[in-house]
Amino acid sequence: AGKLAFGFAADHVEMRAVLRLSMAAAVVAFTILSFADGYALWLVAAVLFGLSFGGILPVWGAFMVQNFGFGHVHAMGWSRTVMTPITFGCPLLAGAVFDLTGGYELAWQIYLALTGIALLATFARSSVEEEPSEQNAPPAAGAEDTGSAASACAR
Fold it and tell me: Is the model more confident about 121 or about 58?
């Protein structure tokens, strides 16, 4: 449901706002997880968490193209390169926190802080506002594309 809802929203609302909403839902979910003591709150947090992170997936590629342009498809690969160790490290951190404290609350609070920082970072603007250019536009139909990842794969 999150993928469909956020994907639909990204088609009709400014994409940065959609990512902010998704991250805000994650902040709320991590806050609930940090302090929840009952099943109902855990369930609410799990639903929010699933919707929020499921919402980022369909929007991320379009967001990267919107911010870096079609001529910079490598930005997507680099963003995944940065995210991969974080993705692998989070469960290890949660396990270490549990081993040290007997609970996950501190891990949720660390994730809350990191997600909050990421949310705040979405408000940062590049110092260079680029005008739409031919480099950032998709290739015209029938035009020879020599520099994109798609053309590289086709060769």
Answer: 121
